[in-house]
């Protein structure tokens, strides 16, 4: 497996499939690049598809130290420059949407478009942003991660899919892609990033984005609420939105063909 070394000596696992315009896929909290299996299979015939395990996740190295949004966003920037990606579409899911927004706070690497899947600029709701999760709910999750990481993951995983999605014919493969224990981050890493989600407000970064942007959102997402995607759509200068009305937090898995067709249409329009 290829490994990219960051300037501070952390090895990041990545995979490249196909050739052509680069598509860089970034995963969510406690996940890894395996979640993009159906997108790699679909797009590698026409594009250069790159999947990256974030620092501390999947097969990337997991050193002690800082796991802030700023550090992980810098990793992405260094990676794109190091492997010389040009004219890239950057595709982030959930936590990775926050990392993309963080990345947009400084001069971007060579990115010509963004795809933001089931994300939010602010994870916790307040009086000025009602589209996040309730403060007590996120506080409880932080406490549960401290007390019993395994149980915290069970509680989190219960929110990922709708009841109907959890009964799909290919549910076993989907659950393996989402929850395989062999790819989990350490408790300390998961807590640090959950704390960043708890604290960060990235709303100010939205208006700095000028590249074409596609928002893709599960209409029944219980983690990153549909209102957050609509909020970003209203404030982005060049954006369109696709809602999957019956999908939860992972439409790229549970409605993969439709998701890939919609993404392909966006890519063809660039």
How would you explain this protein's 3D organization?
This protein has helices at residues 37-43, 69-82, 95-103, 135-147, 149-157, 171-179, 187-199, 203-206, 226-235, 251-254, 256-268, and strands spanning 3-5, 11-17, 22-26, 48-52, 88-93, 111-117, 213-218, 239-244. With 270 residues, the protein is of the alpha/beta class. It has one domain: Alpha/Beta hydrolase fold, catalytic domain (Rossmann fold). Helix 1 links the parallel strand 3 and strand 4 (48-52). Helix 2 (69-82) packs across helix 3 and helix 4 (135-147) packs across helix 5.
Main features:
270 residues; Rossmann fold; globular; 11 helices
Reconstruct the topology from this structure.
Blueprint: E1 3-5, E2 11-17, E3 22-26, H1 37-43, E4 48-52, H2 69-82, E5 88-93, H3 95-103, E6 111-117, H4 135-147, H5 149-157, H6 171-179, H7 187-199, H8 203-206, E7 213-218, H9 226-235, E8 239-244, H10 251-254, H11 256-268
By DSSP, the count of extended strands is: 8
* Strand composition percent: 15-25%
Residue ranges: pLDDT <50 for 5 or more in a row? Answer: none
Overall average pLDDT: 96
- CATH superfamily descriptor: Alpha/Beta hydrolase fold, catalytic domain
Which CATH class applies here? Alpha Beta
Rg computed from alpha carbons, rounded to a whole number of angstroms:
17 Å
End-to-end span in angstroms? Answer: 31 Å
Helix content: 25-40%
């Amino acid at each position: 497996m290829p490994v990219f070394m960051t300037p501070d000596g952390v090895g990041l696992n990545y995979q490249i499939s196909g050739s052509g315009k680069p598509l860089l896929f970034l995963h969510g909290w406690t996940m890894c690049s395996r979640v993009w299996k159906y997108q790699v299979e679909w797009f590698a015939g026409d594009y250069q598809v790159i999947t990256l395990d974030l620092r501390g996740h999947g097969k990337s190295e997991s050193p002690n130290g800082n796991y802030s949004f700023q550090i992980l966003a810098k990793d992405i920037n260094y990676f794109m420059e190091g492997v010389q990606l040009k004219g890239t579409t950057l595709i982030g899911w959930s936590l990775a949407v926050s990392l993309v927004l963080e990345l947009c706070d400084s001069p971007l690497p060579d990115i010509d478009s963004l795809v933001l899947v089931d994300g939010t600029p602010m994870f916790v709701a307040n009086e000025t942003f009602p589209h996040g999760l309730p403060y007590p709910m996120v506080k409880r999750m932080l406490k549960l991660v401290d007390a019993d990481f395994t149980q915290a993951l069970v509680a989190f995983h219960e929110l990922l899919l709708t009841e109907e999605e959890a009964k799909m014919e290919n549910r076993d493969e989907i659950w393996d892609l989402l929850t395989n224990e062999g790819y989990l981050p350490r408790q300390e890493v998961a807590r640090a990033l959950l704390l960043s989600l708890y604290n960060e407000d990235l709303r100010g970064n939205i208006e700095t984005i000028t590249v074409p942007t596609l928002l893709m959102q599960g209409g029944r997402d219980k983690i990153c609420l549909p209102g957050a995607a609509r909020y970003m759509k209203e404030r982005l200068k060049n954006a369109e939105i696709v809602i999957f009305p019956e999908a939860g937090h992972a439409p790229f898995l549970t409605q993969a063909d439709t998701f890939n067709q919609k993404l392909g249409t966006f890519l063809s329009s660039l």
